[in-house]
Design goal:
mainly beta
Amino acid sequence: MGRWSTATVLLASVVTVGWPAASNSIREVELVRDPHFRRGFVVSAPEPGQHVVAGVVRADPRGRYPVWRLTQWSSRFPLTDFAPRPGPQDTLAIGNQAKLVRIGRPGTPYGDLTLAVRGRLEYGGCARGPKDPWVHLLVDQEFVREAWLSDLSALRLHLEVRVSQCRRARTAHYDPSIHAAQVPLFISIQNRDPASVGFGDYYHFGIPLFDNRQRMPTGLVAGDPGTGKLMYCPPASKWTSASTHGGQWVTYSGDLLPEVLKGLQAAWERGFLPDSQQVNDYRPAGLCVGWEVPGVFDVSCQLRNVSLRAAVRR
């Protein structure tokens, strides 16, 4: 396992070929639907690498159907009760002895989403082997609004994160190169042109929100063994000057577009995305964020105010 690995299967120099003429007319498009997780989740079964629906969590039974998917790959204690339980300050939660998923009202101490995993239970107190699967608790969604990279002047991310717990159990055979707790965010940059030979191919653009081994996670450019796609992850310092190791809220923000284009170039230089090297074939296709826990850790984090806004030239 590399330092970063993605759970989502959605799903150098900047290439400027094919850019349209500059325009002063720009419209902002929000790509993230239900940014406060108020609709709930479609919950996937724990079989790794698949999205088999196990159940649906409806935060409001009379509301719209959820757009977020909740992934619990490789869990020994999968969620099976999908009726949310009310809690303090208008919170709703599902969970069991090994995990918790809580939706909180925006602007309250519990807003917007809490994801917690008890790795001690999941692993039975024993460190996993290097080839064994590991526990995930992630949320993801596909984008339905089009934002072709060649039409953008900016791609602005905003996300607030608080890691309230990360406690490692003392186990034999601990190896920090494979036993860790991480909160990555990945955006799939995908060829969405049906006329292109490379239609559907993609790479993972990543932002390391938390890594127990580094106060400020460094970057990574490498192939993902799970999906066979490139992971292009600039260092956390590109998007924040604070560390999520302190237990406080940390804001990640910035224009991703220059780095997204560098990621495309890095993919082409390394032999990924071989069937299309045209910028105008690609757009952000989806987002995934949450816990990957390949080590025996008890962890909890909150996410709030998730936004990815595309500045589109008219």
